[in-house]
């Protein structure tokens, strides 16, 4: 019993020793010294960290990416997007394709002529494919925000949604809208003749990045039917490039290509692959949207 009292008293004395005025074995002066030591120590660490970050930020530009040597070629994307890139609908049931047409209408809102009337933000860049539009260097922010080339949705013809808000879905000839994803300061280059398939050779034009769709599987031969392309030159014209980024080019409009499938066999699952061709646009097995995409159609009557 006496041993328990001694041990209990030793524990209490360690927490607070009234004779030596020590708390947990240290006096107030000792605890104060330790406190100031760690305040200075961690303050120095924080200062080194902040200084390192500030030094790094000084090497970066708000307008131009510092490192672009490993940036992949732009992806090729389409609207409407769907789960597993499958467009499945019934021609006689408007509710089955409403989500697709709503997505396309919403996407094309910014391409309405009424949205492009501001002369300080938009300019006409020609009605045929032309070379790159020079708007100064990315390293010249003093030039202010750059104008964007107008792109009217009327260029998309029957796939514009102006005269047919169903984009052809109501008659079994669906449209999709295709764009090249944005990369700051990227200038796509026209492909050489050797990289373009024979079926596309006749449509190759100067100052235009062509796009071509075909069957994905051999068993779909003869089931895809006619494919029509709508847009400025039926491809991506160079005068819409380069893109200067969100700070310098906030109203930028990407050129679009509308693709209409006029005679897809109904009642069967069909796979279509679309590719864009450019001298500096490649493809990757790891990324199915890099320069291309494939889409599955399943149309019921």
Helix and strand topology:
Layout: H1 2-15, E1 16-17, E2 22-23, H2 28-58, E3 76-79, E4 86-90, H3 94-107, E5 122-123, E6 148-149, E7 175-180, E8 208-215, E9 227-231, E10 235-237, H4 245-248, E11 257-261, E12 269-276, E13 292-300
Parallel strand pairs: 4-13, 5-6
Antiparallel strand pairs: 1-2, 3-7, 7-11, 8-10, 8-12, 9-11, 12-13
* Quaternary: single chain
Shape: elongated
Q: Could you name the ranges where pLDDT drops below 50 across 5 or more consecutive residues?
A: none
The proportion of residues in beta strands is 15-25%
Main sheet overview: 5 strands, mixed
The number of helical elements comes to 4
In total, the number of strands is 13
| Rg (C-alpha, Å) | 32 Å
Structural class of the secondary structure composition? alpha+beta
Task: Give the SSE string.
Answer: HEEHEEHEEEEEEHEEE
Average pLDDT over all residues = 87
Widest β-sheet, arrangement of strands? 4-13-12-8-10
Between the first and last Cα atoms, what is the distance in angstroms?
A: 94 Å
What share of the residues lie within helices?
10-25%
């Amino acid at each position: 019993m006496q041993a328990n009292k001694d041990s209990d008293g030793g524990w209490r004395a360690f927490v607070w020793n009234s004779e030596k005025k020590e708390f947990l074995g240290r006096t107030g002066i000792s605890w104060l010294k330790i406190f100031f030591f760690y305040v200075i120590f961690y303050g120095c660490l924080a200062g080194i960290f902040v200084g390192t970050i500030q030094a790094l930020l000084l090497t970066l530009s708000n307008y131009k990416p510092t490192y672009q040597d490993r940036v992949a070629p732009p992806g090729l994307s389409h609207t409407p997007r769907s789960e597993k890139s499958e467009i499945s609908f019934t021609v006689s049931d408007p509710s089955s394709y409403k989500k697709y047409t709503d997505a396309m209408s919403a996407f094309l809102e910014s391409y309405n002529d009424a949205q492009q009337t501001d002369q300080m933000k938009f300019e006409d860049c020609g009605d045929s494919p032309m070379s790159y539009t020079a708007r100064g260097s990315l390293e010249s922010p003093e030039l202010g925000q750059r104008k964007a080339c107008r792109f009217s949705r009327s260029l998309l013809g029957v796939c514009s949604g102006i005269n047919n808000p169903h984009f052809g879905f109501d008659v079994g000839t669906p449209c999709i809208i295709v764009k090249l994803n944005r990369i700051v300061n990227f200038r796509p280059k026209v492909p050489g003749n050797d990289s373009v398939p024979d079926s596309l050779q006749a449509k190759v034009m100067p100052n235009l990045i062509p796009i071509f769709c075909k069957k994905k599987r051999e068993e779909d031969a003869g089931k895809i039917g006619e494919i029509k392309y709508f847009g400025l030159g039926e491809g991506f014209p160079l005068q819409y490039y380069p893109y200067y980024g969100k700070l310098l080019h906030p109203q930028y409009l990407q050129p679009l290509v509308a693709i209409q499938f006029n005679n897809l066999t109904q009642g069967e699952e069909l796979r279509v692959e679309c590719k864009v061709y450019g001298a500096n646009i490649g493809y990757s097995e790891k990324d199915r949207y890099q320069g291309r995409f494939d889409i599955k159609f399943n149309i019921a009557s």
